[in-house]
Amino acid sequence: MKNIFNLTGKTAIVTGAGTGLGQGMAVGLAEAGADIVLVDLTNVDETKNMISKLGRRSIEIIADLSTTEPIAAIIEESLKVFGKIDILVNNAGIIRRTPAIDFSEKDWDDVMAVNTRTLFFLTQAVARDMMKRKSGKIISVASLLSFQGGILVPSYAASKGAVAQITKALANEWAIHGINVNAIAPGYMATNNTLPLRQDPVRSKAILERIPAGRWGTPEDLKGAVVFLASDASNYVNGHVLVVDGGWLAR
């Protein structure tokens, strides 16, 4: 059984790998044996060092994913160093908080550019390599707001709804090519994105009271989910959005 979760010899691209959930998933994949392409807007030295201590290889690609311009270079460098791309984790994302009545076009466009547009076209580019070998695992980070509307985050909710639907649409087309396309929907996690919520005593208390597990999630809580979806254990799982939320949606 342990062999179906083994990622030895696999190469994974993880976007937004410098901190938070991206770092947790990158390290989890490395713990399972994968080598990692770390993509982020700023340096990923901490993540790189963590992976090195595990005896796995990694490379760093600094890229601004607010546009599709870096995609070709990400693919080229990944293939140059590792020869193939087995796994893609679309984790990079941004959020803007403003009441919907005051929400600006810029905030809308900025969020949609990173969270949906670049995500789709990076996935498309990676899939072209995967199709050559009829094998690949694509995992995008969705959200509880793929299912719910949220408060003060209309563009983020729209983008994460889109991530869930992109996942399903691509699974329909690419399963026949041996590519599994799935998503992870984290619940309320202790990351930079949720810092304003965790610092708000009223909102934080309300959130924690609804989570059956009674705590905020951590990047480590996504390790098992991402390794499952990246491994042979999920070979017959397609178009699924795996919720990791401490029970939030069940309440």
What does this structure look like?
This protein has one domain (2-245): 3-Layer(aba) Sandwich (Rossmann fold), CATH 3.40.50.720. Helix content is 42%, strand content 15%. The protein is built from eight helices and seven strands. α1 (20-31) crosses α8 and α4 packs parallel to α5. The longest helix is centred in the middle third of the chain and has 29 residues, at 105-133.
Topology:
Blueprint: E1 11-15, H1 20-31, E2 35-40, H2 45-53, E3 58-62, H3 71-82, E4 87-90, H4 105-133, E5 136-141, H5 154-174, E6 179-186, H6 195-198, H7 201-210, H8 223-230, E7 241-244
Parallel strand pairs: 1-2, 1-4, 2-3, 4-5, 5-6, 6-7
Observed structural traits:
seven-stranded parallel β-sheet; 42% helix; 251 residues; single chain; Rossmann fold; alpha/beta; 7 strands
Assess the beta-strand content as a share of residues: 15-25%
Shape: globular
* Structure annotation, total helices: 8
Q: Alpha-carbon distance between the termini?
A: 33 Å
Offer a concise description of the structure.
The chain is built from eight helices and seven strands, in the order βαβαβαβαβαβαααβ.
